[in-house]
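Hi C.,

You asked whether I'd gotten around to modeling the 134-residue construct. I have! Everything is below, sequence then structure, no commentary in between.
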Amino acid sequence: VLDFTDHVWIEVKLAAREPGGSPAWAHADPSEGVVDNPLMYEQGWGKKLTMIFAMTPWSLEHVTERYTARYAEVQAHRGASEERLRAVVDEVNHRLRHEAPMRSWGTGTAATSGPLSVDRSMEELALWAHFEGV
């Protein structure tokens, strides 16, 4: 998870609490030794959040609302409209679905499955380069 003000942490996927239930994502900050306290940055540290994204090699999700109790204030001072933010996230996910390798990154062999991520140039991997000037 990336917070555009200056901090990173992770989210972990927890097993379903009830049989047949859905797994849930939970905040975890290994550098602070904290689990499941997503408001700690805003309420404990006094951070003025702007944009927070959760990502994998295959997807990007705007998750700011999980980490703030004052989402309307965050929207007002972040400098990008909700519509613009949604459009950029949609474009990133489109490019990840259609331009990123369609298998686990860095696994297999080049002989059996084409170039590995570790064998690609930085230009090939830099999906963000598509968004210059956005």
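If it helps when you're writing up: The longest strand covers residues 24-29.

Thanks,
B.
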